[in-house]
């Protein structure tokens, strides 16, 4: 992990770790007297980031409150006493022998965090919040900089209780885990959380991020800084502080969708300190990556930050598959007086990739050829074919994926009182996705003859989002009952459009089409027209390069673009124009507007009993319009009024533990994904337009317990989610929202220190996810009833572990695995990928406070396994073994 105990090149570092409360309760003041602990000890981080919570009021955040300080230099005891007087916080010096340490004092308009940093400058002392009103001052520990959980902080004000007391399963992936595991994308970071898989597809977002949480596609339930970010894309991590993974229906928090859970990505904001950090990472598979992150305190009230990344790499174990990207993210912070703050940031990311076509399944439908070609394969059991893992079935000169993401955020926070904060956020974003890639299309049974048809999947699309969100959060009392509350409203507008490319031939009527070729039937001698999708003339130029060899693919083939050939139904294309793509500027469009209001409250009746309740109303209004070139042009509007809730009760037998039960809901209306992913109820037809929202209700019961002196948090939960109004095809072939499904299971996790030097982050998830009423036309009616969800393993686990051998040397790694995953659990033609277990290794050595060398070896055993399983055609292979060395610097 990066060296973090130095600030501005000096030896001391303020260790204000973990979930620091939002603001102190109005009138709350601690003792204004200096205390010292009797026993000498070094402060240790814990699962709540170095704090011990005892009251609901702990959800305040005193470290960010602004004060005017005029404290002269003096002993640590004198300066700490002055800090107590100004801030109302209790400063506890761990040993009397440190009381005489000389402090430079504190001057200026600063947050408490900044004041403590100034007071401890050049003292070799550290500050640690052990509660919202108590700060421990101790000698800086040599191993404090390697805390995995130092940034495990709930950022969203909608969470009105500490992580330990929330009545739901929620995991925070801190920046330290992201960095130590060598993760460069959101997909890689999410491997550290069990119960999450990834989906594949044909259109929409087939090669981008499609996380499945508890068996539900959650692409449209991804949020950035608390606001929905629906655009199809492959997400980077260079600008992330943490990732919040909420499991279970969370419509009360997230709004529409979120039937399996949601993701919230917390980005890097400017902070009032000057620093400079950077990384350079070469690795195998032509991996090169560099990043920089710098902050500058411009004045006492203005600070800036700029971070960026550049990467160019191949994919280990996969020929031709590559990733290229660069991005940058500036941010500014303005303190507009003691009680008002303005945060702004901008995010820009460009990618240039060659996507992976995947591997074909071994049991497609069989079609007998008429040309006498010998069959070389028999049907298999539904898993991917066993071929050379490096085989690339694309066309290198044609296949690409380019993405561009630009977002801007403005956020104003006002401290109405010391315990109540009003926040308004506005976010505008635009994302573009542009791709052509060769999907291995097994629908024609070509693999049985040693051939692969390279079907061109293509799209170019854009999404604009505009969101305004206002929150009021704080805490207080009604008599003897304590409250920690958050309420707010939100207005959003999302606009998406999708269009396609022209590629392939153009027949004599000027219609773009996949050509057909004349083939002689060896049995009858008759000439028959056969589509290029059946590879009638084999591979190479004779077959128009549409097909390639199954065992020895030819990715350097040219491809045919738009041509003015006379008639492609009787001969191979004539006079082709190679390497040409033409965009069709005739998009379909969808616009969605949402108006929402919500409220949450954690109510503490007595010390042992509390309840968390929340409700949200969304007015959802969406309209789809087909391309203007369509005949006829169609428009399908839909309106839904959605009410979702979360109610949980927690019993605390001891301060460190919470036993809870909760009920939550979600609703997914037609057109929820804005055409950016797989949406069974896309509002592209009058039938779907009239469908009611899918509704999911979940019950969950569990235990959360802080262990090892509150340095680790262990969790365990049982859950059951039931979904109704699922869109299905009925026996008479009509469409209706009468399907049902159920997912019940167990979820365990642990985060934090299990000893002073040993840290764990991981868990295990069991899911029994069943389709109860899946429909089906004619003889297929009920065929899938009782079968498993797609993309939902029964068992999954992850363990990331680090051990501080010395204060300079850290070793660790991870084990990540999942059981069998179905793309389609069909009783007649299943599609699935086998389970796997993957091992990663990690090590770092800190040469001095500024320089560290980190090594990562991912997929140590070069395990062949699959990340994504589509319902048909193909499965997406995971990268092979890759080693990286990273030079981390920090000043």
- Roughly how much helix do the residues carry, as a percent range? under 10%
* Counted beta strands: 48
What count of helical segments does DSSP give? 6
What global shape is seen?
A: globular
Class of the largest domain, according to the CATH hierarchy?
Answer: Mainly Beta
* CA-based gyration radius: 29 Å
Class from helix and strand fractions: mainly beta
Assigned CATH architecture of the largest domain: Beta Barrel
Strand content: over 45%
Could you please say which CATH topology of the largest domain applies here? Maltoporin, Chain A
List the uncertain runs: 1-61, 141-151, 506-511, 563-577
CATH homologous superfamily placement of the largest domain: TonB-dependent receptor, beta-barrel domain
- Domains counted in the coordinates: how many? 2
């Amino acid at each position: 992990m990066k060296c973090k105990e130095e600030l501005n090149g000096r030896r001391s570092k303020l260790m204000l770790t973990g979930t620091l409360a939002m603001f102190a309760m109005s009138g709350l003041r601690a003792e204004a007297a200096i205390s010292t602990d009797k026993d000498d000890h070094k402060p240790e981080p814990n699962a709540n980031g170095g704090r011990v919570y005892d009251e609901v009021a702990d959800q305040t955040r005193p470290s960010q409150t602004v004060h005017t300080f005029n404290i002269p230099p003096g002993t640590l005891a004198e300066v700490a006493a002055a800090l107590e007087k100004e801030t109302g916080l209790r400063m506890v010096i761990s040993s009397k022998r440190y009381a005489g340490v000389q402090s430079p004092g504190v001057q200026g308009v600063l947050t408490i965090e900044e004041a403590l940093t100034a007071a401890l400058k050049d003292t070799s002392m550290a500050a640690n919040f052990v509660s919202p009103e108590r700060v421990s001052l101790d000698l800086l520990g040599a191993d404090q900089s390697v805390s995995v959980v130092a940034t495990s902080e709930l950022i969203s004000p909608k969470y009105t209780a500490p992580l330990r007391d929330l009545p739901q399963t929620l995991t925070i992936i801190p920046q330290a885990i992201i960095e130590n595991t060598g993760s460069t994308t959101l997909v890689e970071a999410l491997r550290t959380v069990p119960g999450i898989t990834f989906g594949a597809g044909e259109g929409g977002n087939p090669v981008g991020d499609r996380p499945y949480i508890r068996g539900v596609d959650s692409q449209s339930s991804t949020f950035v800084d608390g606001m929905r970010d629906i655009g199809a894309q492959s997400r980077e991590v260079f600008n992330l502080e943490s990732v919040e993974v909420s499991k279970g229906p969370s419509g009360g928090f997230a709004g529409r969708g979120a039937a399996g859970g949601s993701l919230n990505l917390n980005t890097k904001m400017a902070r009032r300190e000057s620093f400079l950090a950077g990384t350079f990472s070469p690795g195998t598979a032509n991996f090169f990556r560099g990043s920089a992150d710098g902050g500058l305190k411009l004045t006492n009230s203005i600070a800036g930050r700029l971070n960026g990344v550049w990467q160019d790499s191949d994919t280990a174990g996969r020929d031709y598959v590559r990733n290229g990207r660069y991005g940058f993210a500036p941010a500014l912070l303005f303190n507009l007086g003691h009680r008002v703050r303005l945060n702004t940031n901008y995010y820009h990311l460009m990618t240039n990739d060659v996507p992976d076509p995947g591997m074909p399944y071994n049991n497609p439908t069989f079609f007998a050829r008429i040309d006498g070609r010998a069959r070389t394969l028999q049907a298999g059991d539904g898993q991917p074919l066993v071929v050379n893992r490096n085989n690339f079935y694309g066309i290198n000169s044609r296949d690409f994926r380019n993405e561009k993401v630009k977002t801007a955020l403005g956020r104003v926070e006002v401290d109405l009182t010391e315990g109540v904060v009003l926040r308004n956020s506005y976010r505008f974003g635009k994302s573009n996705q542009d791709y052509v890639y060769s999907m291995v299309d097994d629908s024609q049974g070509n693999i049985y003859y040693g051939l692969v048809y390279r079907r061109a999947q293509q799209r170019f699309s854009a999404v604009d989002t505009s969101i305004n969100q206002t929150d009021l959060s704080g805490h207080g009392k009604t008599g003897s009952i304590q409250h920690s509350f958050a309420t707010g409203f939100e207005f959003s507008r999302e606009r998406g459009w999708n269009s396609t490319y022209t590629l392939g031939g153009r027949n004599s009527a000027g219609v773009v089409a996949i050509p057909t070729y004349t083939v002689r039937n060896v049995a009858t001698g008759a000439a028959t027209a056969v589509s290029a999708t059946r590879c009638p003339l084999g591979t190479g130029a004779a077959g128009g390069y549409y097909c390639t060899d199954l065992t020895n693919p030819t990715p350097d083939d040219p491809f045919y673009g738009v041509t003015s050939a006379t008639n492609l139904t009787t001969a191979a294309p004539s006079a082709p124009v190679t390497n040409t793509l033409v965009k069709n500027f005739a998009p379909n469009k969808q616009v969605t507007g949402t108006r929402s209001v919500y409220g949450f409250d954690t109510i503490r009746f007595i010390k042992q009993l509390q309840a968390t309740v929340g409700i949200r109303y969304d007015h959802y209004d969406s309209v789809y319009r087909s391309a203007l070139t369509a005949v006829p042009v169609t428009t399908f509007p839909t309106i839904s009024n959605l009410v979702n809730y979360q109610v949980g009760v927690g019993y605390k037998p001891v301060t460190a533990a919470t036993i809870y039960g909760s009920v939550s809901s979600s609703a997914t209306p037609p057109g929820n994904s804005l055409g950016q992913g797989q949406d069974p109820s896309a509002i592209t037809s009058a039938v779907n337009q009239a469908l009611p929202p899918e509704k999911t209700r979940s019950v969950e019961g569990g235990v959360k317990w802080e262990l090892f002196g509150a340095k680790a948090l262990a969790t365990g939960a049982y859950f059951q989610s039931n979904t109704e109004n699922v869109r299905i095809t009925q026996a008479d072939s009509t469409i209706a929202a009468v399907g049902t499904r159920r997912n019940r299971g167990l979820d365990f996790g642990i985060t934090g220190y299990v000893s002073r030097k040993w840290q764990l982050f991981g868990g295990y998830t069991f899911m029994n996810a069943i389709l109860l009423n899946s429909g089906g036309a004619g003889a297929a009616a009920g065929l899938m009833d009782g079968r498993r969800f797609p993309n939902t393993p029964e068992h999954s686990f992850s363990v990331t572990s680090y051990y501080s051998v010395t204060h300079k040397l850290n070793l660790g790694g991870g084990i990540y695995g999942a059981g069998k995953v179905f793309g389609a659990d069909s009783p007649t033609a299943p599609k699935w990928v086998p389970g796997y277990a993957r091992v990663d290794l990690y090590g770092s050595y800190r040469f001095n406070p500024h320089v560290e060398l980190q090594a990562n070896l991912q997929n140590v055993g070069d395990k062949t396994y699959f990340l994504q399983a589509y319902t048909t055609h193909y499965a997406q292979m995971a990268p092979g073994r890759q080693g990286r060395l990273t030079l981390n610097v920090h000043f």
